[in-house]
Design brief:
about 220 residues; mainly alpha; two-stranded antiparallel sheet; 2 strands
């Protein structure tokens, strides 16, 4: 999809049919998919402005001038961005965080990056709980943010949260070293239902077929 020119319309139709098939197989609620897709709106708004800028071949419609280069660039942003967002939604909605880490490990991502992502997922809830306790402590002392004048207090709270998180990380690291940690996390195992083997080959084969669809048709 990344390397396919936007001018190959038939290929992109096949790409969208393929991603919609995956959404259906993942059994994700349509409203959930649409709600999470709203993150793409700023990029779509930017893409709508691109046809008005460019050079070369142009078209006149309702007194407005549209440039072919801008239309192709805007269409590429919308099509590729939508496909990418839908793919990310399917991955996050149908695969657990542990499953994603296991997949990255099997794809031979550098172990250091896998470890960083693993620790982030493990301790993001710890940091979130710490933020909530600090908020409750401020509220119990009558603090309610009113505007810019309270930014100094919020900045101090953010700095305190950073220091506490850093110190907690050091304590966790020392505890791991005392238990024999050598820089390698134990191999992860995931006992979940996996799709049949033929399905694992269906998606890449379908993607390659979609990329070559224009040549097959013409």
């Amino acid at each position: 999809m990344i390397s396919t020119p936007i001018s190959q319309i038939n290929s992109y139709i096949a790409f969208f049919l393929l991603i919609f098939l995956v959404v259906a197989l993942a059994r994700l609620p349509i409203l959930t998919v649409l709600r999470r897709s709203l993150i793409e709106i700023p990029f779509i708004l930017f893409a709508f402005l691109m046809p008005f800028f460019g050079s070369g071949e142009s078209y006149e419609l309702l007194g407005l001038t549209f440039y072919r280069e801008g239309l192709l660039a805007g269409g590429a942003i919308v099509a590729k961005g939508t496909l990418g967002v839908l793919g990310a939604i399917v991955l996050s909605g149908s695969t657990t965080a542990r499953g994603i880490l296991l997949g990255l490990e099997r794809l031979k991502l550098p172990p250091l990056m896998v470890n960083i992502a693993s620790f982030m997922l493990r301790y993001i809830n710890v940091v979130t709980d710490e933020m909530e306790r600090m908020r409750v402590a401020r509220a119990s002392r009558g603090f309610e943010p009113q505007g810019i004048r309270d930014w100094k207090i919020l900045a101090s709270a953010a700095a305190t949260l950073f220091i506490r998180s850093y110190e907690r990380g050091e304590r966790v690291h020392l505890a791991m070293l005392s238990r024999g940690f050598n820089g390698q996390m134990p191999k992860m195992e995931l006992h979940e239902h996996h799709p049949p083997l033929w399905f694992a080959f269906l998606l890449p084969v379908g993607a390659l077929a979609s990329a070559s669809l224009d040549r097959w048709v013409f």
